[in-house]
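Quick log. Single chain, no ligands specified.
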Amino acid sequence: MTQPNGTFWSYYRTKLKTDASMIAGAGSAALVTLLGVIALHEQWGLAPRATGMAVGLSGVLLLLTVLAREGLRRSKRVANDEQARSPLALFGGMFAVALLTSGLLAKDPIQSGLAYREGKQQLELGNYTAASDAFSRYMEIHPKLAAGYFWRGKAEFKAGSLDSAYADLKTAIKLQPRDWNSHVLLLGTLQKLGREEELKQQLKEVNRIDSELGTQWQKLVEEITG
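-> predicted structure:
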């Protein structure tokens, strides 16, 4: 059997360096995008969704990597070791392209994360209408996530729009029945609305979740809305 010559091994070393640099760039871009989405939402509970998004991104970026590699190979731009000695340049180029691609693919999660952050900032500043509007934009993208309804309900509660707060908090509890923040804030809303009978029913529901919440809910309302 004929032994492989230096040119043979040189080609495959070049190919390996090229592929490794490109895949590292693509993978890093996907990781940065995913961590950015999670950080914007301040919810590590989104990790399962992020995992699903990672699979999708990885598939697209892997295809992008293969196409880029083949394009370079056919143009003979990485045909020898001398040209393949700049893995950093290949990494950087693929990282930039992949980051743009993953950013476009993750457009909705990024936009909702920015809206979520804006809503919390406006809430802290006391701009309750602006906060409510920001959380509404968040909910347009994530209509089935309880967090959006809770935070908009909180903004409406602070603004004195109690009927709107009531509706949002009821929806939040429907989506996430054991979210004690929504339950407690709903108690505070019912108290302000003067709905004594419904308040008693809600207290029973809260006691089923946690008996301590039922005895300390007024203090907890102050903590949540403070």
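The chain has ten helices and no strands.
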